[in-house]
Amino acid sequence: PRRWFLLFILALLLLAGCGSRTPEDVHPTVTADNAHVQPLTEDLDSDQATAQNIALTSDQVLLFTRDISSGAPLRSAVFGVYPVLPGDVTENTAACANDTCYRVDLYNFATNTTYHAWVDMKQGKVLHVNSQEGTQPDLPPYLVKRAIEIASTAPEVIDALGFNPAPDDPTMPNVKTALNQTTCERSRHLCVAPTFLIDNSALWAIVDLTDEKLVGVRWTYLGESAPAGITQLAVESEDVFEKYCQQTTSLERNGWSMDYDLTSSDGLRLSDVSFDGKPVLQSAKNVDWHVSYSGTDGFGYSDAIGCPIFSQAAVGAYSGPVVDDLVQDGEVVGFTLTQDFYHPDWPQPCNYRYQQRYEFYNDGRFRVVAINLGRGCGDNGTYRPVLRIHLTPPEGGFTFAEWDGVAWQDWTVEGWQLQDESTKFTPEGYQYRLLGADGSGFYLEPGQGQFPDNRGDNALVYVTTYNPDEGDADMVTIGPCCNEDYQQGPEKFINDPPESLAEGDIVIWYVGQMHNDATPGSEFCWADSVVENGEYVNRVFPCAAGPMFVPLP
Fold first, then answer.
1. Based on the domain organization, do 402 and 500 belong to the same domain?
2. Would residue 229 count as lying in a domain?
3. Distance CA 56, CA 61 (A)
């Protein structure tokens, strides 16, 4: 009897297994309302596929895939489905702090707008939808393949190369780009640049994926190079993801207290920063790197930095953050928190390496720094890191002011300003002041060459009112790679007309501008491999930009 009972139980288990659902069983839910939206059909597990179905059957989402006047369908597609990480949770998605959530990224080709749908799996519904006009998410695999196909078979590319390239020849096929005098200018269409490396030059094939065609080819000079020195990934990608992307780390040192986590594509994000018990920063992060290789043709890359897997980052983190003493003139004056992001083949041509460094001083000063360590895809590159800094407002908020050479002049509405030869500074080098009603606050000191690896920030500074949908969560690349003017992305958050700053809860966007130099003896934003003692070693010439915040006396 016992044997028959065991066989009966085994049969029940087998029957239960036959009814279980595998990831392949979760197919896109196609209805008359969403048939015009292209879903993702590859590289999704069952939870991601379910989250996509919840989003694509939500009226809250589908509203943005049709013309607002006629209701006509607009070409739209899901580009990615990502687990919501700790740094993604905002007041609009607070349930995701406890529930499993996914972010479904949808791109509307017709309006050139990215939509993020936040899906709560426990509740089985969309919690929130926010949009970013004039932006594109990172490409799904099928569009990367399509870009490579268009580039590799285009007669213009074949003629320029002198041979028929193989599908695996181009590098950087998924990184967004622009090109003046074409539909790709100022990233008005979804454009990428599969790049072919030939000796010491690179051929850029600019592909418009909105119209699915090649719109131009351009050459850049890479500089002389040698084979890369041998490197080793210090920590496996999975370990970095589990330790720093999926959870928040707390740090207390020298009177400073803070949390940090690696984001999908906004680098290392700080949050809840305080000094001697007083709140200082709500958050700070590196949203984008814009890399331009031509001031006239306007082509280059829009890079993102972040987690090494389940991420939109073009340049990933393969080791965790490092805390070091900050030493000046032989004395420890504070500490640094540094995160490295790099391509494994760096410093070979068309490989990039970036760092974020947060500096915290024992006297309450702090600095938010973006660092480029070369080498990139050309010797005429301009690098523009986009920093988002949200200081914790005191009761009554901050008043933001600039120095006019004589006195502090308050800003009453949102705006932007370029640091140039006409900019006025106080004798101490301060350009801006944030003053609280209680007299506390900070001076903002931009780079003028006084900081290490700095030749002047030439920064664009944007001041906007705080809105959780404007950067609290992880952001796609918010601006074109190659604009030479103020249109770097943050200007999208300056309303028309500009909002009043009276409430005093403001966000500072800081975009430094650094031009590389490969000239022997004056290298800057550059890297190379050279022979020393019979072996290849990497030589690095960093460039850094970022503001110092100095407490008011």
1. yes
2. no
3. 7
**Residue 474 CA from chain centroid, whole number:** 8
Contacts of 532 (CB under 8 A, 6+ apart): none
At 48 the three-state DSSP class reads helix
Q: Do residues 122 and 182 both lie within one domain?
A: no
DSSP 292-352: ES-TTT--EEEE-EE-SSSS--SEE--S--EEEEEEETTEEEEEEEEEEEE-TTTTSTT-E
Q: Which of 88, 111, 133 is the last residue of a domain?
A: 133
Tell me, yes or no, whether 209 and 104 share the same domain: no
- 260 and 385 in a common domain: yes
| Whether residue 391 sits in one domain with residue 427 | yes
Please give the Cα distance from 24 to 46 (Å, whole number). 7
**Number of folded domains in the chain?**
3
Q: How far is CA 99 from CA 82, 125, 168, 242, 249, in A?
A: 14, 12, 40, 18, 20
Q: Do residues 212 and 122 share a domain?
A: no
Last residue of a domain, one of 85, 104, 133: 133
Size of the chain, expressed as the number of residues it contains:
553
Bridging pattern class, strands 432-436 and 398-403: antiparallel
The 3-state DSSP class for residue 111 equals: coil
- What's the pTM value of the predicted model, to 2 decimals? 0.83
How many Å separate Cα 292 from the centre of its chain? 16
Q: Is residue 274 part of a domain?
A: yes
CATH number at residue 499: 2.70.98
Is residue 180 located within the same domain as residue 107?
A: no
DSSP for 9-43? HHHHHHHHHHTPPPGGG------TTTTTEEPP-SS
Q: How far is CA 262 from CA 15, 98, 134, 245, in A?
A: 43, 19, 25, 5
Per-residue pLDDT of the chain (553 residues; tens, 9 = 90+): 433 333 333 343 333 444 333 345 677 777 778 899 999 998 899 999 999 999 999 999 999 999 999 999 999 999 999 999 988 899 999 999 999 999 999 999 999 999 999 999 999 999 999 999 989 998 999 999 999 999 999 999 999 999 999 988 998 887 778 777 788 877 889 999 899 998 888 898 999 999 999 999 999 888 766 555 434 444 457 889 999 999 999 999 999 999 999 999 999 999 999 999 999 999 999 999 999 987 667 788 888 999 987 776 789 998 999 999 999 999 999 999 999 999 988 888 888 999 999 999 999 999 999 999 998 888 889 999 999 999 999 999 999 999 999 999 999 999 999 999 999 999 999 999 999 999 999 999 999 999 999 999 999 999 999 999 999 999 988 988 999 999 999 999 999 999 999 999 999 999 999 999 999 999 999 998 888 887 778 899 999 999 999 999 9
Classify burial at 273, counting beta carbons within 10 Å of its beta carbon; exposed 0-12, middle 13-18, buried 19 or more: buried
Which range marks the domain in which residue 315 is found? 237-551
